[in-house]
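Reopening: Aldehyde dehydrogenase still failing for me.
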Amino acid sequence: MHRHEFFIGGRWIPAPAESLFKVVSPATEEVVGEAPLAGAADIDAAVAAARTAFDDGEWPRTPPAERAAVLERAAEILRGRTGDIAGVTVDEMGCAISQAPRAQTGMVAPLFDYYAALARTFEFAREVVAGERRGLVTSEPVGVVAAIVPWNAPVTLSAWKVAPALAAGCTVVIKPPPEAPLSNFVLAEALAEAGIPPGVVNLVPGDRDAGEHLVRHPGTDKIAFTGSTAAGKRIMSLCGDQVKRVSLELGGKSAAIVLEDADLATAIPALVGGGMHLSGQVCGALTRILVPRSRYAEAVDAAATTASQVRVGDPHDPSTLVGPLVARRQRDRVEGYLAGAVADGARVAAGGGRPPGLPRGWYVEPTILSDVDNAMRVAREEIFGPVLCLIPYRDEDEAVRLANDSPYGLAGGVWAGDPARGVRVAKRMRTGSVAVNGSFPPFPMVPFGGFGQSGLGRELGPEGLRSFLEPRSIGLPAS
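Support: Ran it again with your exact input. Result attached.
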């Protein structure tokens, strides 16, 4: 929990004393660690190391099977360090330890295994013949990648970017956020131990200014970003000025359609539990629950009962489901949305305040809002807290219209007694991922990303590897 160095060029570089800052637990409001924040000079050094490793080093020219072997070693090392990653995230951002296997560690090693296997089979080059003409089409690494990751699942979302980038032959600069700067040090240690050459992976925690410097830097070839839509728009504009490659996984206001034949006894607890995952601080959370008017009162009662039974408290306690929000400003933001919802006519069916018995920490009760109209601000904007809006609908067509009536399109869900009907409705939703009866991406083999203001490009799956590759065509002389 106390780190005083950056990882640059394969070495741990002491950070200037003035760059060190205190990491505060959102559960206790006490200092639990210390980390360096990168300035412009530190970003420059990290990019220079990655640039040299790409332009002059061995990694981009290493055969894919040899790169795969390093990724496999990294996966094995990371499997042995899941407890370290989980423990750090509990303290630095308040993740409940019961949630860590799903959010913080469960996909990390499997992602490195997946991209190692894909690198061994992926067609990085193919020959094309058209009559007397022949060509060679190759997939080349895009270059130096800036991986800018958020605080809610910092190592998992780094792995989404770093594993395919390394499989492609790229070099990487990882910039974790100041709210959760520490857990990615474990990732850097594991990759160094696995044999990643110097400069191929660099780690420089930093704030928004550091991130902007990294995006603007002429030495970076691609930005891979996960975070808010507002920040994504800024990054996209900066990349547009440079015609720089960019992939963006942004916010969401995702809907779950509960059809009239759905089993509410199964659907509602699952939806409430999913919406409270990471205290609701999940971009793909299903926070708009669309319910038939004929079953609306029943669904509201079930959701309120379920939410009132969710255990809130110490994130170190294995029985806790909902820990604190990441920062005081985040709690203030959520409370502002709740006050606005009531002023707009919504009703608090459960929660709505700070939990009793927790005088310290940035907690908000699991909250169910009923009588919500899809035009309300609370139904239009991403709250990023443990708040679910229940919205009634007349028929299937209106349910689909309401689900699609959003600037976002990241995730979605359908609950149906008839799974085939659930799939048919899912296909009508304008969103990047849809869960039918709780069978929800992401997992390593399928792409994840959004429509509309939820982002640009895809992570995971073969699509995630292709996003770090540039196609090149070479005309071959006639044989």
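The first strand starts at residue 5 and ends at 8. If you still see a failure, please send the error message rather than a screenshot.
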